[in-house]
Write a structure and sequence with these properties.
The protein is of the alpha/beta class. It folds into two domains: 166 residues, 3-Layer(aba) Sandwich (D-Maltodextrin-Binding Protein, domain 2), CATH 3.40.190; 109 residues, Periplasmic binding protein-like II (D-Maltodextrin-Binding Protein, domain 2), CATH 3.40.190.10. It is 49% helix and 19% strand. The chain has 13 helices and ten strands. Strands 1, 2, 3, 4, 5, 6, 7, 8, 9 and 10 form a ten-stranded mixed beta sheet that branches. Helix 2 links the parallel strand 1 and strand 2. The termini are far apart.
């Protein structure tokens, strides 16, 4: 009987200690969130200045700083298919002072295309909210002057090889070409380059027939005639390029849309995540921010809460992982 009482007393003490620990942790997290932010916040970008990710960061940073009451410092960490930035943020202190502006390629595709990925997105990050989305653009060089639409491109690809360049093997542009070939049954040949610059140069020069890449850097070249835009890879038309038909209009169900969102290390306290989420929703609702994003080829869009965005990110991780497997792309070192 005495032994039983001692066991019960020990169990009660352990239960009380656990409850006290939980309450202390919760109180600490709430206090931390109340003080947050008390110093500058770093927004890490996966690509160098000038691209759609960097333009997005510069469009939202001032307004995000106002909403949070802090200075936002942009830090570009390119290379390694965007995974350097992901590694950097995933290993940062989980205190809300290091935020990753992640996008489809570096945070979903690149880790799954690597033999030894430095991070696992669903495990190492918490998704906060989406900032916007952007389709890829399909543009043609001078070699096929009669190809003026996605229907024309597919019709020609039924009769001959059509070469389409991308910035490299295993990226979203490459996978989109694979998806397009599978959906159209055409003879679309992927030609990878070491970066977007050489891919664009050779397409303009006529060494390859066309190119698939983010719409933002293609827009000036389509406007001045160096490239001929024929489609966007979304299911619906985009307001900032209304004259480009979506592939989804010709191939129902087709969609390959890049998106951008905010991520923090997985152990970041919930109250801080909630605070950043409220701020970014306010930012995306601002007219001046939306105009800047659309000018950069980004369709502004946030989701209802972090849980919804997290579920979307997890679905995208599975979807693009399967696309990589189906395309039989060899994993990169």
């Amino acid at each position: 009987m005495n032994i039983l009482k001692l066991q019960q007393r020990g169990l009660l003490q352990r239960t009380l200690c656990a409850a006290l620990f939980c309450c202390t942790s919760l109180t600490g997290s709430i206090a931390l969130a109340q003080d947050y932010p008390s110093k500058p916040v770093t927004l890490v970008v996966s690509y160098p200045p000038g691209g759609s990710n960097d333009l997005t960061a510069r469009a939202i940073a001032p307004a995000l700083g106002e909403a949070l009451g802090a200075t936002i410092v942009i830090e570009n960490k390119p290379w390694a298919a965007g995974m350097i930035s992901g590694t950097y943020v995933s290993r940062a202190a989980p205190d809300g002072y290091m935020i990753l502006l992640g996008s489809l390629s570096p945070i979903i595709v690149s880790p799954q295309a690597a033999k030894s990925p430095p991070f696992n997105t669903p495990v190492d990050f918490r998704a906060i909210n989406r900032v916007g989305s952007t389709p890829l653009g399909i543009a043609m060089g001078p070699t096929l002057p009669n190809v003026k639409s996605i229907a024309d491109l597919i019709a020609v690809s039924k009769t001959r090889d059509v070469t389409l360049s991308s910035a490299g093997t295993g990226g979203v542009s490459h996978l989109t070409i694979e998806l397009l070939q599978a959906a159209s049954k055409g003879r679309l040949v992927h030609v990878p380059y070491k970066g977007a610059g050489p891919a664009v140069t050779d397409t303009v020069a006529g060494h390859v027939d066309g190119i698939v890449m983010d719409i933002s850097p293609l827009m000036p070249m389509m406007a001045d005639g160096r490239l001929k835009g024929i489609a966007v890879t979304s299911a619906e038309r985009m307001s900032f390029v209304p004259n480009l038909a979506p592939v989804g209009e010709f191939l129902p169900g087709f969609s390959a849309v890049n998106w951008l969102g905010l991520f923090v290390p997985v152990k970041t306290p919930e109250p801080i995540i909630a605070k950043i989420n409220v701020a970014i929703i306010k930012v995306i609702a601002r007219k001046d921010v939306r105009e800047k994003l659309e000018a950069a080829g980004i369709m502004p869009s946030s989701m209802e809460n972090p849980a919804a965005f997290q579920a979307y990110v997890n679905e995208e991780y599975v979807r693009w992982g399967k696309i990589l497997q189906d395309a039989k792309i060899e994993k990169q070192d």
